[in-house]
Amino acid sequence: MDSFKGKYERVSADNYEEFLKALGVGLLLRKAATVSTPVMEVSEESGTWTIKTSTSLKTMELKFKIGEEFEETTQDGREVTALVTLDGNKLVTVQKAKKDGVASTKSIREFNGDEVVCTLTIDGNDDLVCVQKFKRV
């Protein structure tokens, strides 16, 4: 898992705006998110992992221990119970909404050498899949 650690820059994002729209993100924030080039930094210290995603506008941090549930407020404002698990070369994050009518999501970050493929889905919306690709910098 040491191979997961490092900095990665997003090089593509398929269906990202559609994904954000399905989550209820407003037009201005969707546009800002789609034109930015985020850098994702993955680190670990004493069993606590951090995935920090930075753009010129904002920095977001996800801190977790693999296999331990935690409470999270997502960047789009959803209150969720989250769980990150390890599946081979993939970090799988499941975010279960605490309130009815709020989206639950799943993200799979697949680490392949100098590339990370992040696949995002929304529970109950099987037709919409967002795929973002990151390259190590």
From TrEMBL:
InterPro entries: Calycin, Fatty_acid-bd, ILBP, Lipocln_cytosolic_FA-bd_dom
Record CDD domains: FABP (cd00742)
Keyword Manganese attached: no
Superkingdom assignment: Eukaryota
Keyword tags: Lipid-binding
MF terms (GO), sorted A to Z: fatty acid binding
Gene3D superfamilies from the UniProt entry: 2.40.128.20
Residues in Lipocalin/cytosolic fatty-acid binding domain copies: 6-120
Recorded family membership: Belongs to the calycin superfamily. Fatty-acid binding protein (FABP) family.
UniProt-recorded name of the protein: Cellular retinoic acid-binding protein 2
